UniProtKB/TrEMBL annotation:
Keywords: Membrane, Transmembrane, Transmembrane helix. Residues 16-405 form the Major facilitator superfamily (MFS) profile domain. Coiled coil: none annotated. InterPro entries: MFS (IPR011701), MFS_dom (IPR020846), MFS_trans_sf (IPR036259), OPA_Antiporter (IPR051337). It is a multi-pass membrane protein. The lineage of its organism: Bacteria, Pseudomonadati, Pseudomonadota, Betaproteobacteria, Rhodocyclales. This is MFS transporter.
Amino acid sequence: MSSRSAPSSIFLLSRVFLPFALGYYLSYLLRTVNAVISPDLTRELGLSAADLGLLTSTYFFAFGLAQIPVGIALDRYGPRRVEAGLLLITALGGVLFATGESLPTLAGARGLIGLGVAACLMAGLKGFTQWFPREKMASMTGYIMASGALGAVTASAPLEAALPFIGWRGAFWMVAALAAGIAALIFFAMPEKDDSTHGGDLQHALRGVQEVLSAGRFWSFSGQAAFFTGGFMALQGLWAVPWLMQVNGYNRGLAADHLFWLNIGMLAGQLSIGAWATKLATRGITPLRLMQIGLFLTMVVEALIITELGPTIPLWCALGIVSATGAQMYGVVAGLFPLHLSGRVTTSINLMAFIGAFVVQWGLGGLLDGLRGTGGMGAADSLRVAFLILLAAQLASFVPLARAARFKPHGEF
């Protein structure tokens, strides 16, 4: 379709938003699936806490390594070809995970999955900058993040209910088929924007990356990306269930119910942002301000969870709601740079998030093993210490975020 004609809402919904939303749905489902299947993996493979953290975090490691190359590819080749190609790698990773028998094989397969879904959100955000006006970006970010939240919901109580029938291996065979199907949909159904690619050689592309990574305005958001977004992914993707089982004393079914409500809260938060962000901005509550308020409340809710003050299901649901505001970071940071750098900006900030997720997810596992082994601490107390350390890191990263209003969007003076 030519960019000279105005696309209809049905066109934008069915051929731009929906394919990207399905890709991010799958990405988030795979990001969080190990939280529910972790007891099965531990029992079947005899994994320690550090082994489990490493197995789960290889997704984040591979995802993070891919971010800068993915950003360059999105700006050079467009989101349609990049995301469709990478999702075929996801399908391969799903097959290998479904058939794996050892920790190295499963870790490698999960790394392939992380690589394969590395463009799912970033391709969507890149596509939205091409097809939607800037004032709609906060809402579109909320809606695609809601699609991811729906994937996380699927990977909680619904997956727990299905596991007795399909097993964790059967679940990954379904993942492989779904990834291949979404790849085909994206490649054959999604339109190509006339100006969807940006020319220049690799050296020129790398100069764009350097421009982003050398900017102080970028680094003001890096700590928040690592310890709020990354920290939330580490809890949601693995450590929430051990906390609920070992600190609160719940069985796996009840822990999965809490994870379900955490993800329902995130879904509700993202849908609310999608519906209200544009209107809120006209009343002075900008996406940056919304993020600052939400992440401050995130720390408050986490403190209540750690101190066990209040009913657990409402607290975990509230954590999902307020943490949803962190996704506005992508649009906020992208708006501080020229449009032709948008792919590299969003993937660079996403790199910070996934470095944080990898460090927190694996680091908590190692810390727990150390506290329980040489430290002689019980499972519940060691988890409390680990969660307190994460909260302290979040508090430190909130300081530069609170001062980020001094940066003006690109083009404003």
